[in-house]
Design brief:
180 residues, alpha+beta, Aminopeptidase, 7-stranded mixed β-sheet, 4 helices, globular, binds coenzyme A, diaminobutyrate acetyltransferase activity
C-alpha cells in the first residue's frame, strides 16, 4: 500500500451511509480500489470472496448516494479478538471528511459488542503513507487513547515484486463500547 496523499479541498457531502457489504458489492469495492490508483489492486474475485465470506468485518461507504469508500478486514484465525484491517480506501473527492474513520468506528463498534468482542485492531502501513498512519492514530485516540505499537511485519525483501515494506500497527486493548 505505498502512497502519500494530501488532504483534498473540502467537497460537499450531505449524506453518508455505512453498510455491511453483500456479495453484490464486491464489484464496487474493486472499482474504488482501482480508482485509488495507489492501493494494491487485488483481483475482482478477491473482493467478491471477501464480501461472501467476511461481510461482518468489511464495510462499504456511500456518500451522496454513491459508493465512495470500502474497508476489507477479517478476524485473525488464531486470535479472533484481533481485527486485521487489510485495505481501506476512500475516493479522492470524498477524502478528509472522516469517511474512513466512520467506517472503522462503525465496524469496531459492532465487533466490540459481538459474542467474541474485538479488543485489538491491526493493520500494516508503508512508511510513506501519512494519511493511513494518521487515520489509525486518530482511531486509537478516539477509542480511549489506546496504545499503538509498531514493528516491521513484512520487509521489502519478503515481497517478490518491488513492493515496499509493511509496518504492523497494533492498536489496543479496546475497552470502550463506542468511540469517545
Ligand atoms: C487513507 C484514507 C483511506 C483516509 O481516508 P479519509 O476518509 O480521508 O480519512 P479521514 O477523513 O477519516 O481522516 C482520518 C484522520 O487522518 C487524517 N488524515 C487524512 N488524510 C491525511 C493526509 N493526507 N495527511 C495527513 N493527515 C491525514 C485526518 O486529518 C484525520 O485525523 P483527525 O481525526 O485527527 O482529524 C484515504 O486517504 C485513501 O483512500 N488513501 C488511498 C488508499 C490508501 O492508502 N489506503 C490505506 C492503505 S490500505
Amino acid at each position: 500500500m505505498p502512497v502519500t496523499t494530501e488532504i483534498p479541498r473540502a467537497h460537499p457531502i450531505n449524506d453518508v451511509r455505512i453498510q455491511r457489504p453483500s456479495t453484490a458489492d464486491g464489484g464496487e469495492m474493486w472499482r474504488i480500489a482501482w480508482r485509488s490508483t495507489s492501493l494494491d489492486l487485488n483481483s475482482s474475485y478477491a473482493y467478491l470472496l471477501y464480501c461472501r465470506d467476511f461481510p461482518d468485518t468489511c464495510r462499504l461507504a456511500y456518500a451522496n448516494g454513491e459508493p465512495a469508500g470500502f474497508l476489507l478486514g477479517y478476524r485473525r484465525p488464531e486470535n479472533p479478538e484481533t481485527l486485521f484491517v487489510w485495505q481501506v480506501a476512500v475516493d479522492e473527492s470524498a477524502r478528509g471528511r472522516q469517511l474512513a474513520s466512520r467506517m472503522l468506528d462503525d465496524l469496531v463498534q459492532d465487533l466490540a459488542a459481538s459474542d467474541v468482542p474485538v479488543r485489538h485492531v491491526e493493520t500494516t502501513i508503508t512508511e510513506d503513507n501519512t494519511a493511513s498512519q494518521q487515520l489509525f492514530r486518530s482511531f486509537a485516540r478516539r477509542w480511549g487513547d489506546a496504545d499503538v505499537e509498531t514493528a516491521e511485519l513484512f520487509s521489502a525483501a519478503h515481497f517478490p515484486d518491488d513492493h515496499a515494506g509493511e509496518v504492523l500497527y497494533s492498536i489496543g486493548p479496546i475497552d470502550l463500547p463506542s468511540p469517545n
